[in-house]
Specification:
The complex is a heterodimer of chains A (53) and B (487). Chain A is built from three helices and no strands. With 53 residues, chain A is mainly alpha-helical. Chain A has a domain of 29 residues. Chain B has a domain of 232 residues: 3-Layer(bba) Sandwich (FAD/NAD(P)-binding domain). The longest helix of chain B is centred in the C-terminal third of the chain and has 21 residues. In chain B, the strands form seven sheets. In chain B, strands 1, 2, 5, 6, 7, 8, 21 and 22 form an eight-stranded mixed beta sheet that branches. A five-stranded parallel beta sheet of chain B has the order 10-19-11-12-15, with helices on one face. In chain B, strands 16-17-18 form a three-stranded antiparallel beta sheet, with no helix packed on it. With 487 residues, chain B is of the alpha/beta class. In chain B, helix 1 packs parallel to helix 9. Chain B is globular. The chains are: A mainly alpha (53), B alpha/beta (487). The interface between A and B is medium-sized, with 31 and 37 residues.
Chain lengths: 53, 487
């Protein structure tokens, strides 16, 4: 969030959402990301199989 | 005996050659691959070469031993002219090619074919932007492994300057008003930013994204809608959030016209002519066809029969000019077969798209500024396989009906957007869209199947990207059971 402090107010960079600490933690958590790894693989395979049909 | 010639050994060409040799008896049929270089490179990993996380040797290999094992003839040459009807001496279609190897450099030969696959990809049209010369001054590129290797050398110089307390401005994005491939530049800017921060040099660096996109996250595919956190949001929000999180600023709707050693000159959609100083620039050039010529049996120039005005090859797309509001997925090709000469195909980036996917925009001065249609590795691989499957079927059955189809308006694509290398601290956004070209008739609300479209940042994305690097190189090397790995 400290980035917001150095971004000029009312510029385009002022408005988009930024992840909070919990979201950042989940993005970096080995355990959580391991689960996501298998889920993402499954989702990609669904796209791949559809693309080859 | 059928004689099949493949021009190009990139994702589409090499995939087609691999499936052709698997599906055809090589004692009965001849397969020839013609490419200016004897190496295969896994282009998505160029961005890691550009930040020093991989060497060129890790992302490429020599095709000649593999083609020798597969019974494919390899000719190191570049295509020059197409003679789809032959000429007064040769009664079958042929291509004139010029050797690029040391022994025969500059020598021209004629290669006859029964079936021709033109998978020559794009010409990297650097000359369309004044001063955009990779390796010149502070300008880098990650379009080839050679360019990426130089980009890393230049990046190291800038890192050293920052270590000595000098401030540096990094500008990364698109280098032509109608450039495409925003995804690769997006990955590179995130990796550059990651490497700067890893060294604790962020106070000396200003990192700026410059793009011809109308909004961030367009990526040449008109953006996408992603379900996340209880909302369905556009990729604009996703891309902007990624940049704000990293304190990367951006310039959008910008058509870069010229560069000198320290300044980028661009025009925006408002018609303003503006300047951006820089110390390091990596800007993706415009793509074009290779300027091939085509002649009929009498020697008459028929280039317009084979190629669109941009030099890319005409295929089974609907090229009728029509307004953006009337575009549909039916405009997009399914078999990549040339409509005039049915034994010629153009999968991958070599085919001329019917139009862009993003809405064409023009500045107040009449300059077109918008993202052209991208064709990433996965669609190119699928197109290469479908082309090979159709040719195999034609040869084996004698039936010229194209039974295998792969329209970008029906196939999905997965893209892993690397944002930093490392098995513990790396990150990447996993993105999927289905279909690549929005189908507003089938999916009137979001243009795509919202159940299969996603965008998720995290460490798992890096593991996926890393895994795909090795998996697709394994497949390209034709190692045991390579064909079980999908494109």
């Amino acid at each position: 969030m400290e980035n917001r402090l150095i971004i000029t107010k009312y510029s385009e960079q002022y408005y988009p959402p930024t992840p909070n600490n919990f979201t950042l933690f989940l993005r970096r958590s080995i355990f959580f990301q391991l689960i996501r790894f298998f889920i993402l693989n499954y989702k990609i395979m669904k796209i791949v199989i559809k693309g080859h049909s | 005996m059928a004689n099949i010639v493949v021009l190009g050994a990139g994702v589409a060409g090499h995939t087609a050659a691999a499936y052709l040799q698997k599906g055809l008896n090589k004692k009965e049929h001849k397969i020839t691959v013609i490419s200016p270089t004897p190496t295969y490179q896994w282009i998505p990993s160029n961005i890691w070469v550009g930040v020093g996380r991989m060497t060129p040797e890790e992302i490429k290999f020599d095709l000649r031993p593999l083609y020798n094992k597969w019974g494919i003839e390899f000719i190191q040459a570049k295509a020059q002219s197409f003679y789809p009807e032959g000429d007064e001496h040769i009664n079958t279609g042929f291509v004139e090619v010029e050797y690029t190897n040391e022994e025969n450099k500059g020598e021209k030969i004629k290669i006859a074919y029964d079936y021709l696959i033109n998978a020559t990809g794009p010409k990297l049209n650097f000359e369309a932007t004044e001063g955009l010369i990779p390796g010149n001054g502070n300008i880098a590129s990650v379009c080839t492994f050679g360019h990426a290797s130089h980009a890393w050398e230049l990046f190291q110089e800038k890192l050293d300057k920052m270590k000595n307390g000098e401030n540096q401005i990094f500008v990364i994005g698109t280098g032509h008003p109608t450039a495409t491939c925003q995804g690769a530049a997006f990955e590179y800017i995130l990796n550059v930013d990651f490497e700067i921060k890893r060294r604790g040099l962020e106070k000396q660096a200003q990192v700026i994204w410059i793009t011809n996109e109308y909004e961030l996250g367009d990526f040449g595919m008109g953006g996408a809608f992603i379900p996340k956190g209880g909302f369905i949001s556009n990729t604009k929000l996703f891309a902007e959030s990624y940049f704000v999180e990293r304190n990367i600023t951006w310039i959008k709707r910008a058509g870069v016209k010229k560069l000198d050693d320290h300044t980028i000159y661009y025009e925006n959609l408002d018609g303003e002519y503006l300047e951006q100083p820089y110390d390091f620039a990596m800007l993706i050039p415009g793509f074009a066809g290779h300027g091939f010529k085509a002649y009929d049996k009498t020697g008459k120039d028929i280039s317009d029969k084979l190629f669109a005005p941009n030099g890319l090859m005409k295929v089974d797309a609907d090229y009728t000019p029509k307004p953006f509001e009337e575009w549909t997925i039916k405009d997009w090709p399914e078999t990549y077969q040339n409509p005039s000469y049915h034994n010629i195909f153009a999968p991958g980036i070599a085919f001329a798209p019917p139009h862009s996917i993003s809405k064409p925009m023009t500045s107040k001065n009449g300059t077109p500024i918008f993202a052209s249609a991208p064709r990433t590795g996965m669609p190119s691989g699928i197109m290469g396989k479908v082309t090979a499957d159709n040719i195999i079927n034609w040869i084996k059955t004698g039936n010229a009906t194209m039974i295998h189809k792969a329209s970008m308006g029906r196939m999905g694509a997965a893209c892993i957007v690397s944002a930093g290398y490392g098995m513990r601290k790396g990150t990447a956004a996993t993105m999927t869209v289905s279909p690549v070209v929005p189908d507003w008739e089938k999916f009137p609300q979001w243009g795509r199947d919202i159940k299969t479209t996603m965008g998720e940042p995290g460490l798992a994305g890096h593991w996926l990207k890393w895994l795909m690097h090795y998996m697709f190189l394994y497949k390209a090397k034709g190692l045991p059971f390579w064909w079980m790995i999908p494109e």
